[in-house]
Design brief:
The chain has a single domain, classed as Hepatocyte Growth Factor, CATH 3.50.4. The protein is built from two helices and five strands, in the order E-E-H-E-E-E-H. This is HGF factor.
Length: 131
């Protein structure tokens, strides 16, 4: 029934309209290119195709049809948000999600304490609990 239907790469991203991220930290990387659709930008970001960094987000300039792939997202230190009517920001859900799905092996979020405030055990540690 679903033969021939491709998964939309935008499903892996959280969209925030009219927002751009500005890097204050100069070591953070950005790459831009003219592309016709946000789907093309998302596909390239998901695959890290042609990028020298792990793509965590992209901003699409609707006016110039330019994609800006980002090595950071809105939670990264050294980044500030800027309201901009030309841009839509798309952040990979894996990097902005504040919950663990399944066993958490692919968790890339920023939460490192339990609900009660106790520091989480590192994945590669068997102390204080065995896995």
């Amino acid at each position: 029934e679903c033969k021939g239907k491709k998964r939309n790469p935008l499903h892996d991203f959280k969209k925030t309209g009219e927002l751009m991220l500005i890097k204050v930290n100069k070591t953070l990387e950005v790459k831009t290119k003219l592309l016709n659709t946000t789907e093309q930008c998302a596909k390239r970001c998901s695959r890290n195709k042609g990028l020298s960094f792990t793509c965590k987000a992209f901003a699409y300039d609707r006016v110039t049809k330019r994609c800006h792939w980002l090595s950071f997202n809105s939670l990264t230190n050294g980044v500030r948000k800027k309201q901009d009517h030309a841009f839509d920001l798309y952040e990979k859900k894996d990097y902005v999600r504040n919950c663990i799905i399944g066993k958490g092996a692919d968790y890339k979020g920023t939460i490192s304490v339990t609900k009660s405030g106790i520091q989480c055990q590192a994945w590669n540690s068997m102390i204080p609990h065995e896995h």
